[in-house]
Amino acid sequence: MSDQTVSQDVVVSLLYRLTLDDGSLVEESTADDPLVYLHGHDNIIPGLENALNGMVVGEQKQVSVEAVDAYGEYEPDEVDEVPVSELPDGLEPEVGMVLAVHDEDGEEDVAQITGIEDDVIILDFNHPLAGQRLHFDVTIAELREATAEELEHGHVHDDDYEDDEDYEDED
């Protein structure tokens, strides 16, 4: 498999370091805990996935991904004010806190508290990296063929995965 490249349906183990325009570190993987994903199945942001096509094990690259190809542009209309009285009893809101919020249809979304004013909290439903250009330093650590089950489910299964009735595919 030494001639294998990053391509559709290949499981990729990726070492990366993610920074923003100002150089601040957002996150990074380690050799002990690489990002492992199934290429071509929308498991990572599209701008990064496209840039990795054709790479081989050991290859390094610097990739900048514009917001539109990452987590999207920042949408001001995705910010909402919610009365503190609507929060669950005992919850003490703090700026920076992330909450799971259910809409009228019972669908769950995630929002970050960005402000607290009088009796309302300001909830931002944008991804924390929305509107940001992302800079990745990447190294392909390993490539392997996906299993039939991984291809069927559209994502990688770790070694601890067991096929039982309790497993629910998120797709």
What does this structure look like?
- The two termini are 29 Å apart.
- The protein is mainly beta.
- β7 and β8 form a beta hairpin.
- Strands 1, 2, 3, 4 and 9 form a 5-stranded antiparallel beta sheet that branches. Strands 5-8-7-6 form a 4-stranded antiparallel beta sheet, with no helix packed on it.
- The protein is elongated.
- The chain folds into 2 domains: 10-71 and 130-153, Chitinase A, domain 3; 76-124, Beta Barrel (Thrombin, subunit H).
- It has helices at 46-52, 148-153; strands at 10-19, 25-28, 35-38, 60-65, 79-83, 98-102, 108-117, 120-124, 134-145.
- It is built from 2 helices and 9 strands; from the N terminus they run βββαββββββα.
CATH topology of the largest domain: Chitinase A, domain 3
Corresponding CATH architecture of the largest domain: Roll
Radius of gyration: 19 Å
Approximate strand percentage = 35-45%
Give the % helix.
Answer: under 10%
